[in-house]
Amino acid sequence: MSKVRNVTTLHPFDEALALTPVPASAQEHGRESARHWTGRTHPAYANMVGPFGGITAAQALRAVLAHPQCIGEPVSFTANFAAALQDGEFRAEARPVRTNRSTQHWLVTLSQSGPGGVDSVVFTATAVTALRRPTWSAADATMPAVPAPDAVPRTPLAGARVAWLRRYDMRPCAGAMPTEWNGVEADSLSQLWMRDDPPRPLDFCSLTAMADVFYPRVWRRRALMTPVGTVSMTVYFHAGADELAATGEGFLLGQARAQSFFNGFFDQSAELWNEAGDLLATTHQIVYFKE
Amino acid sequence: MSKVRNVTTLHPFDEALALTPVPASAQEHGRESARHWTGRTHPAYANMVGPFGGITAAQALRAVLAHPQCIGEPVSFTANFAAALQDGEFRAEARPVRTNRSTQHWLVTLSQSGPGGVDSVVFTATAVTALRRPTWSAADATMPAVPAPDAVPRTPLAGARVAWLRRYDMRPCAGAMPTEWNGVEADSLSQLWMRDDPPRPLDFCSLTAMADVFYPRVWRRRALMTPVGTVSMTVYFHAGADELAATGEGFLLGQARAQSFFNGFFDQSAELWNEAGDLLATTHQIVYFKE
Given this model, what pLDDT does residue A4 score? Predict the structure, then answer.
C-alpha cells in the first residue's frame, strides 16, 4: 500500500513551497510592487544544519512566480546563500525592479529573526523572467550515453543521514559518492538519474531544487569529507512550461563536474536533461570548503 | 611614439571606473551601510547602444570593492543587465546585506533618470566577497594547447565598429568572428588571447570586464547576425589578488562556448587563464537573441 499515492495529500515539495502573503504595511509605501510572504523550512527537506539549499532556492523562485505582477517564465535565477537558515519561519520579499516589454528583473530576499529579534537577511536572489517567443533553437550539450533509469539501482536510503536525500530517487550512473574515504584523488564528474520521491510533475521550482542535488564535488575529487556550503548558485532555464509539462514525472539525467578548487572555494557546472534527451537547464555554483 | 605610455595619464579603464561618493541622505536612515556613488559611462568603452556590458559590470564591482566596509576579495559576482544604459551619468548603490566571519554578501543597483526624471533601475548585481585561507587547491580545467600570443595576429581594428573593441588586444586562436555571414552552422567554440589596450595590470574589475569580451555565441554558431543582449552574467573568481598581480599586464587566454539556444535565449560558459596556465576565472552568461 505504501506506493499508492493519496491525491488529496499535498506532495512534500508543495507543502514546503506554501507561502502565506503578508499584507503591505505603511513602511512599504513607495515600493508598492514589493510583495511579502512568510514561509517555513520543511522537515522533509532538512539538511545537516538547516534546510537543503535547493528547497530554499525553490521557495525564493516561488515568491517571484507567485507575484501578481510577474510576467513570463524564468530564464535565469541566481541564489546567494548568505547564512545558514534556522529551522522555522522566514520572511520573503520579491520585488520586480525593472519590467520591460518582454523581460522582467527581480530581487528576492529571505530574512529571519536574528539576535535581539531583528530581521536579518539570510538569502538573496536575482531572477529574470521573460515572455519567450519561438526562435531558431539548438541544444549543443548532448546527453551522455548512460543506461536507462530502470537499469540503474537507486542509491540506498539506509545511508541517508539527512531527510532531504529521501525526497529524491537518485540513480548514479558514474561518480557515485565515494564508499571509502581514503583520500585517493579522482575526477570530479558525476552522472545520475534523479526525480522527486514521491514522483511529481516537473515545474520551474522543482527543476531549480534539482539543480542543487549533486553532492559536493570536492568529496568526489578527493575522497575526503570536508565541511562545505554552497555560497551562490545560478540556474539557466532552456525550456518553457510546455517542455517541463512534457517531462512530467519522468527522470532527469544530471551531470556535474568542477573546474577549480582554490583556497576555500570550488565551482560546479551541471546540466539537466529529461529522458527524451532535451536539455532543460544548465546550472553553476560556487561552494565553500574548509580545507 | 604612440607606444610610449604616459604614466601620469590615467588608463581609460581607470577613468571609466572613477566613482564619486554621494553623501548619505535622510532617506537612507536605517540602511546606514549602503553607500552611493555617481559614475559615468565612458566613450572609450561605448558599444552600439550604450556601454560595453563588461565595463558596467566592472563599475558595479568597483562600487563593492570601494565600500569602506568591504571585507576580503571577490569570490562570486552576478550582473543583471536590466535595461540598456543611456550614455551619461548613473547612480550606484552598494549594500552589504550580510557580513559573516569570513564572507560578505552584497547587493548592487545602478540607476539612471528615466521618463519624468524618476530614477529607474538599469542594472542589478549580487556579489560575495571572502577572506580566503590557503587550502588544498587544484585546477581541473586545463588550458588548451594554442600558439603563444606573439604568434597569433591581432584582430584588425579596421573592422571595429564600436569603441570598446579598441580597448582590447584580441588574438583569436580558434572560432574567430565569421568573415562571411552565410548561415553555415558551426560549433560555438572560440579561443582567443586578450589583454587591455593599452596594457594594464590585471585586477578583479578588469578580469570581470574581460569575462564579457567574447562576441555572441549565436553569431559564431549560425554565421548570422541577429540582435543580442546579455541578460545576466556570473563570474567565479579562482584567484586572489596575488595571483592577479603575478599575471600583471600579460595576456589571458579565453575560451567560450554555448550549450543551448532556446526560444530567444542562449547560454555561454567561458574560462580565463593567464599565460602561465593558471585558471583565474570561470564565467557564465545568458543572452537574449532576437530570432
Answer: 54
* Nine cell digits for residue B172: 583569436
Please state which of the ranges A201-210, B112-121, B193-202 shows the lowest mean pLDDT. Answer: B112-121
Share of chain A above pLDDT 90, in %: 88
CB A172 within 8 A of CB A191: yes
Check if B251 contacts A (Cβ < 8 Å): no
Phi, psi (5° rounding) for residue A110?
-115, 135
CA-CA distance, A65 to A233, in Å (whole number)?
18
User: Cell numbers at residue A127, please?
Assistant: 531572477
Contacts for B62 with CB less than 8 Å, ≥ 6 apart: B17, B19, B205
Whether residues B282 and A259 touch (CB distance < 8 A) is answered with yes
Within chain B, where are the H helices? 12-16, 53-65, 204-210, 217-222, 241-247
Q: Does B267 touch chain A (CB under 8 A)?
A: yes
**Are the C-beta atoms of residues A11 and A196 closer than 8 Å to each other?**
yes
Q: Which amino acid is at B246?
A: A
**Residue A30: is its pLDDT beyond 50?**
no
Q: Are A61 and A215 in contact (CB under 8 A)?
A: no
Residue B32 vs residue A198, higher pLDDT: A198
The count of CB pairs under 8 A between chains A and B is: 212
Per the rule left: phi > 0, alpha: psi between -120 and 50, beta: everything else, A175 is left
pLDDT higher than 70, residue A26: no
Radius of gyration of chain B (CA): 19
Q: Is A84 on the interface with B (CB under 8 A)?
A: no
DSSP B151: G
Per-residue confidence (pLDDT) for residue B1, from 0 to 100: 42
Q: What is the pLDDT of residues B77-89, one digit of tens each?
A: 999 999 999 999 9
Nearest to A98 among B75, B82, B125 (CB): B82
| B116 dihedral zone (left: phi>0; alpha: psi -120 to 50; beta) | left
Q: Which residues of B104-117 are buried (b: 16+ CB within 10 A; e: fewer)?
A: bbbbbbbbbeeeee
Mean pLDDT of chain B: 94
Q: Which pTM was predicted? A: 0.95
**B259 to A271: CB separation less than 8 angstroms, yes or no:** yes
Contacts of A167 (CB under 8 A, 6+ apart): A12, A13, A44, A45, A52, A196, A197
Residue A25 pLDDT class (50, 70, 90 cuts)? low
Please state, in angstroms and rounded to a whole number, the distance separating the CA atoms of residues B76 and A56.
Answer: 19
* A51-60 pLDDT, tens digit each: 999 999 999 9
- Residues with Cβ within 8 Å of residue A150, at least 6 apart in sequence: none
